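User: I'm putting together notes for a lab meeting next week and I want to include a structural view of one of the chains we've been expressing. I don't have a solved structure, so I'd like a prediction I can at least talk through. The sequence is below, exactly as it appears in our construct file.
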Amino acid sequence: MLVTYAGLASCASTALQGYEGVARTDEETARIVVRRGRVRAEIISLQLPHGTMAVETTNVRVLPGENCIAVRARSRFSESSAAYMCFEAEAGETYELHVGTVLTYSDDAGYTEFRIDSFRLVNRYTREYVAIAARGTAGCVSALVGQVSRRGGMGVAGGRGRAIECEDSE
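Assistant: Thanks for the context. Below is the predicted structure for the 170-residue chain, given as structure tokens.
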């Protein structure tokens, strides 16, 4: 398997090439970026036709069509959650990985702790949720891919997609 890289994984402005072959234009690829938040998140692997590519990046380009990624987030207090998400990428689009957090502790000195609550992959331009993995009260639950109403919380409408899995470790 020949895998080439268009940039370095650690460089925030240059996207890693997450597919085999020569580099393609922005109009021929889709981009996945990790949105900065309260926790450190990254894409840890990409599913390719001939296997899995291990990566540790916050910015990657993929080909249009079905793509599956594994993502991980860590709070500064060592809580870690991971999810495996599949979605249908469209050429020229950018998708943001959002990590939802819940405040679990706060004191007068400004010390706060957050629990990782969900992973959401959102089309940056349409704001459509294309994949969701959320924790329930009994641990980690999966949701179907589809358009999600922001006012409707974590409910899923549509249902054109695949189930996703998530995993927690404390």
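A couple of points you could mention at the meeting. The mean pLDDT is 75. Residues 16-169 form one domain.

User: Perfect, that's what I needed.
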